[in-house]
Each structure stands twice: as structure tokens, then as C-alpha cells.
Amino acid sequence: MPDGMGILNERVVAVVLSRHNSLMKTATQLRNRFRKRLRGPLGPTPTAFAIRHCLDLIVDLRQCGASWSQIAHPINVALKSESRAAISADTLRGIVARERRAARPEQTLKPRVKEASPAGVPPAGRGPGRENPMKGESGTSGDGSLDQAAGIAAVLEQMKGI
Questions:
Q1: What is the pLDDT at residue 22?
Q2: Which segments of the chain are extended strands (E)?
Q3: How far apart are CA 141 and CA 151, in angstroms?
Q4: d(Cα 130, Cα 158) in Å, to the nearest integer?
């Protein structure tokens, strides 16, 4: 093997080992912090509560390329040490997604509020006789348009005379 290839391989091995050591250190931190959060001052805490306090470590592991199964392992070791049931990688992924969504309420979906138009004025782009694509009917067939109101008023005037 040429010398240039040997140096390259040594650098690759050094990077891989460094990354591995970093992942192992973070996984150990996750296990220890998670284990501490499983017990509160009043007794056992919910698993989701403990995961919420470890989100930063879980996100770090995911960004480094760890799978959900790899992340679930140290969590399950901590759960086993507290005589609690293990969780699957899919359950962990769901809990993390829910906790991350709850952590940033400013980005939750806000209900869209329809702006009210002045009384008697149809919404923009919808004049009398135009079809409402959502209802599949014309604007004069019972949707409260001005033409319909005028027609009802005329019928009522005729009925007064009877």
C-alpha cells in the first residue's frame, strides 16, 4: 500500500473513533440523566417527563446519525434499572415528536379565521350568478345572495296585496 493511502486510512479511523467516542459519551449521559429523571421528589415520574428533560441529548444523537433503536437502548437500560417496562424505538420516536412539538408552541398550527365581509357584500370573486366550487351550486340557489333576497322581498310585497 502506498504511504499516502496509509495516512488517509489512519485519518479516517481517527475520525470514526472520535465520532464513536462522542456518541458513546452522549449515550452514557442520556442514560444517566434519564435515570435521574425517572424518580422525582414525590416518587416515580412518567417516562415522557423524563424524555422531555433529555431532548437535547436525543436530538444530538439523532444529528450524529444514531438510529431510534440505538437511542432507545440506553433509555431501556435506565428503565430496567428502575424495574419499569421498556419502550420501543417507535414509541420513543412518537414521544420525542410530541414533546418537541409541545416545546415550540409558537409554531403550532393556528386556526385560520375567515375575514368577514360587510353585510350584503359577497366575498371577493363571488358575485351573483357565479358558481361556488365548494357547494357545486350557483350563487342564486339559496346561499343568501342579494338577488335571492330581492326576490324574496318581491314575493312578500305581492303577498301583502292578497
A1: 77
A2: 39-40, 43-44, 131-132, 137-138
A3: 11
A4: 28
CB 37 within 8 A of CB 54: yes
Tell me the C-alpha to C-alpha distance, in Å, between residue 158 and each of 108, 119, 122, 152, 155.
55, 26, 27, 10, 5
Buried b (16+ CB within 10 A) or exposed e, 27-55: bebbbebbbebbeeeeeeeebeebbbebe
Q: Are 47 and 84 in contact (CB under 8 A)?
A: yes
How far apart are alpha carbons 45 and 50 in whole angstroms?
A: 7
Max distance between CA atoms of the chain, in angstroms, equals 111
67-114 per-position pLDDT tens digit: 999 999 999 999 999 999 999 999 999 999 998 888 776 654 555 555
Q: Which residue did the predictor score with more confidence, 135 or 32? A: 32
Question: Where are the domains positioned within the chain?
Answer: 3-105
What pTM was estimated for this model as a whole?
0.54
pLDDT given for residue 124 in this prediction: 60
DSSP summary character for residue 17: H
